[in-house]
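Ops channel
N.P.: pipeline sanity check, posting one input/output pair.
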């Protein structure tokens, strides 16, 4: 496995969370991975991960209210 591919998988973990929160499931076989060729592209991609972190915080906040 190339380091670039592994880095992308790790960087996408927050997006998996956002997808699971909004869609309630994730199919890794059809999940749209982006091709990352440069460090700059990877950094731009990491900016998109903020939505995953936000979704995760939203879910935790609402889960606490149900308890």
């Amino acid at each position: 496995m190339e380091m670039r591919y592994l880095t992308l998988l790790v960087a996408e973990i927050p997006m998996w969370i956002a997808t699971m929160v909004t869609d309630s499931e994730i199919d890794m076989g059809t999940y749209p991975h982006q091709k990352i060729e440069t460090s700059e592209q990877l950094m731009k991609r990491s900016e998109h991960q903020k939505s995953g972190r936000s979704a995760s915080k939203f879910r935790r906040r609402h889960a606490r209210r149900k308890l």
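N.P.: looks fine end to end. Helices lie at 3-23, 39-66.
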